[in-house]
């Protein structure tokens, strides 16, 4: 067995009831949800366990909810004794990865992502920005399309480079619409508008990044115990100054997920364990490298099967 990476999902993977069975059967897991409620002075666990879905999906709730659930599941997985060589997370999931790497405490992390969600919601008023998934087009061609549209006064840029043939663009509503049309003309197979509350990972998020700087200055960030593969550079980060700088950049820069997976494989990772709701990242890893082993832990059943499978591999 080669090296192992723990990967953590981003916004969009949230579902009502996630982590509830873990919390009911494991006191240590339950305490994670309790800590989140206390730190935020907000009944986050009730929203996670009971909904409604519309309230859970709000960026200000979804971000801390996903971090809390992922860290709770990680807490349950720790009894396996399996430790990662690298950690990474998709957008919001990068904060979860930093908590897993002991660079940020859970309490500071859940507070930071709650504020991050608020700032992202408020950065672009009246839904003036949006995002769209563009399928089946080369990233360099799509980048040229977005740069041309932006030069015409309608900001739009690559936001998530998820895997070969799956890229998300983000920007002003007009910019995304024009770039979507031009992408189809340039050979994109499909363009899917996304139901989001703002143009995340675009230059329009710079006001949110400025406000986030103040929050990150408040919390205690230390050197990571495990290398974290950064979204903005697809390279290893462990130094606290580097972590803070890249978290600021992350708000208005593309998430280089495909490049991050390739980097981890280059570093010797052959096993990826997705910890948190859903299996989105496992699917993306497979699209980047079919031979990679992927596991996803989202409930007690998958926890048991993954622990058993990994113990067999380690033998």
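^ structure tokens above, recovered residues below v
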């Amino acid at each position: 067995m080669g090296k192992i990476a723990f990967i953590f999902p981003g916004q969009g993977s949230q579902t009502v009831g996630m982590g509830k069975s873990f919390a009911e059967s494991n006191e240590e897991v339950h305490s994670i949800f309790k800590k989140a409620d206390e730190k935020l002075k907000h009944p986050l666990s009730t929203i996670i366990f009971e909904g409604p879905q519309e309230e859970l999906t709000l960026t200000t709730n979804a971000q801390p909810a996903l971090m809390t659930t992922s860290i709770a599941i990680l807490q349950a997985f720790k009894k396996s004794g399996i430790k990662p060589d690298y950690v990474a997370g998709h957008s919001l999931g990068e904060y979860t990865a930093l908590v897993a790497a002991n660079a940020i405490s859970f309490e500071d992390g859940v507070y930071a992502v709650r504020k991050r969600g608020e700032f992202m919601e408020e950065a672009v008023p009246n839904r003036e920005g949006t995002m769209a998934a563009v399928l089946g087009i080369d990233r360099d061609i799509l980048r040229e399309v977005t740069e041309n549209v932006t030069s015409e006064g309608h900001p739009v840029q690559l936001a998530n480079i998820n895997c070969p043939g799956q890229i998300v663009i983000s920007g002003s509503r007009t910019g995304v619409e024009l770039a979507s049309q031009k992408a189809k003309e340039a050979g994109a197979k499909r363009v899917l508008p996304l139901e989001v509350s703002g143009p995340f990972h675009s230059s329009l998020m710079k006001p949110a990044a400025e406000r986030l700087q103040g929050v990150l200055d408040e919390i205690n960030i230390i050197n990571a115990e495990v290398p974290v593969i950064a979204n903005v550079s697809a390279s290893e980060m462990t130094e606290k100054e580097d972590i803070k700088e890249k978290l600021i950049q992350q708000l208005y820069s593309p998430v280089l997920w495909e490049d991050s997976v390739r980097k981890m494989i280059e570093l010797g990772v052959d096993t990826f364990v997705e910890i948190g709701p859903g299996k989105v990242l496992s699917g993306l890893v497979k699209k980047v490298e079919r031979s990679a082993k992927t596991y996803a832990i989202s409930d007690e059943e998958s926890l048991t099967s993954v622990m058993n499978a990994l113990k067999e591999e380690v033998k």
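The domain at 3-123+204-314 is CATH 3.40.366.10 (Malonyl-Coenzyme A Acyl Carrier Protein; domain 2).
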